Amino acid sequence: MKYILVTGGVISGVGKGVIASSFGTILKHCGIHVTSIKIDPYINIDAGTFSPYEHGEVYVLDDGGEVDLDLGNYERFLDVTLHKDNNITTGKIYQSVIEKERRGEYLGKTVQVVPHITDAVQEWVERVANHSVSEDGNKPEVCIIELGGTIGDIEGMPFVEAFRQFQFRVKKENFCCAHVSLIPQPRSTGEPKTKPTQSSVRELRGLGLSPDLIICRSENPIGDTIKDKISNFCHVPPEQVITIHDLSSIYRVPLLMESQGVIPFLSDRLQLNVGIQQPRNFMRKWRDLAERIEHLRKEVVIALVGKYTKLEDSYASVTKALQHASVQVGYKLKLKYIEACNLEKTKLQSDPVIYYEAWQQLCKSDGVVVPGGFGKRGMEGKIKACKWCRTNNTPFLGICLGMQAAVIEFARDVLHLSNANSTEIDNETENPLVIDMPEHNQGQMGGTMRLGKRRTRFSGENSVIKQLYGNKNSVEERHRHRYEINPKYVGDLQAAGMKFVGHDEQSERMEIVELEGHSYYVATQYHPEYLSRPLKPSPPFLGLILASVGKLKSYLSSGCRFSPAQLSDNDFDDDYPVESTNSLKVVSSTKPTNSNVSGSD
After folding, report:
1. Neighbours of 43 (CB within 10 A)
2. Is residue 529 among the annotated active site residues?
3. What pLDDT sits at residue 595?
4. What was the pLDDT predicted at 358?
5. 315 shares a domain with 260
6. pLDDT the model gives residue 275
7. Integer Cα distance of 57 and 75 in angstroms
């Protein structure tokens, strides 16, 4: 087993997750089986009890693991299925060591950070690295480990010490360290500054780890002079200094890294059986994807009505799923974040300007997403957004709490149950349209929800969502919730036109709802965003984008394939070759692009 450790310096959020994912993408295109591990130095057992404002979204895996959002990057970039043990936290490590101590496995010894905690980290990494994460069941050959936080953080010290020992445990030819550091460029001088990186590398070396690669993150491209200076002061050859500036798309990061000689270096350093001369079509699909994103001309405006919109990472997977679908359809995504509580009448009284601005954004959008969430705040705003979409024929996708809001709104307005609500919001409501699941609501918060992949069986033959899924009888998607639609009201809701077209295969819980006679009004109890991939967009999101640009009917009538007429309607040039992917058409370009474009990372 070969290991690549990715560490970070100067600041957190420097882009280690994308860099680690890019290493995996490059190696996977070389035919090497790759797995990933994310280490989070916090004491929490998992990410399940985090506020989205604290740490971004909580990402859910097939096995129900609630993990860091970076594992979502790994799964999307590498198209693999990770497990909850691929996310290591301080809490998990200490819990495992304490449980061993209670069983008497350390009998007679004083349990200490070194060697017991550090040994536990190394054993965990070796065990998880050998688990298959691909559909073919092949054992990984390379494990990419991202160490969260910043070098020098006190909570990360046990992990740094563990990997100082680990490099000797697995031998030098099987271990590589890549250090990601920021190169700031103060506006007062306009000159890139290398001193923070020098200090960060010096601290890393002082802790016993010497970087083999230094990945320099910067806002703008940096020249060879800066690379040579970093090489000189950080004791690595210039060719082992990789520069990654802000790009127009994160999908360009693997291409930029590959162009700077990452493959021959890793092949030599880790003794990988990879040819230095790559075929002409190497990473062709990935390159086509990056090119296509930059050449999209038309825009589709989607409003995301949520509770945690002040931090965009709170809805990272939803945002990515919308981007995947938009690119597949041939449109550039313009996403509007709307705070749900700004749509409520209380906001009209306290701040009418914000209230009317929020409603203006909602009304001007081509489509609307109401994602998941917890608690009372913003619920009425989500319900009002659902009503707007339903009564104005605006394409709508509700997810988890979004589905529950859609059902409550329909019951209030169509069934005239004015006090309909969820027991999560109002435990005394006379019409509980949404109720808790007792087996998933036992008073303990961590890891007790209905989590992970479960099978949903379709029941409607003419269902739009069933057609988008390829007319399958059932699908498997990931869940994260404690509340469900009350089966007592399902009959009345369906009689009024709200059809439940998907049910849990085992418990008959309501999973998918559609509205008859609407352009696209779909809501799911599961979270389809978790399984969306850049070249395989999630069907519910694809349906939303197609409906938002007026192409859903023609797409369904063509058997869920894009016709040449639809492709030409996207206004692409004639010299854009077409490549078939998963029954959809991917349009690519060979035109040069401006790599200096600054964008979100």
Report:
1. 13
2. yes
3. 35
4. 94
5. no
6. 58
7. 15
CATH number, domain containing residue 67 = 3.40.50.300
486 lies in a domain?
A: yes
Is 424 tagged catalytic? no
Q: What is the pLDDT of residue 443?
A: 57
Q: Same domain for 227 and 359?
A: no
Structure confidence at residue 32 (pLDDT)? 92
Closest CA to 446 of 43, 58, 45, 41: 45
Residue ranges of the chain whose pLDDT lies below 70 = 274-280, 439-447, 562-601
Give the integer Cα–Cα distance in Å for 452 and 270.
Answer: 35
Q: Say yes or no: 478 and 395 in one domain.
A: yes
Domain containing residue 332: CATH number? 3.40.50.880
For 335, the domain range is 298-554
Write out the two tokens for 58. Answer: 């909580």
Beta bridge partners of 36: 144
Q: Which one of the listed residues 179, 245, 481, 527 is annotated catalytic?
A: 527
pLDDT of residue 567: 46
Question: Do 264 and 226 lie in a common domain?
Answer: yes
Q: What is the 3-state secondary structure (H, E, C) of 16-50?
A: HHHHHHHHHHHHHHCCCCEEEEEEECCCCCCCCCC
**Six token digits for residue 123:** 């054993």
Residue with tokens 């006379």: 430
461 is catalytic: no
Q: Are residues 260 and 322 in the same domain?
A: no
Say how many domains are in the chain. 2
Catalytic residue selected from 400, 481, 484, 511: 400
Last residue of a domain, one of 243, 276, 309: 276
Considering 409, 477, 511, 529, which one is annotated as catalytic?
529
Domain assignment present for residue 575? The answer is no
Q: Write down the pLDDT at residue 374.
A: 85
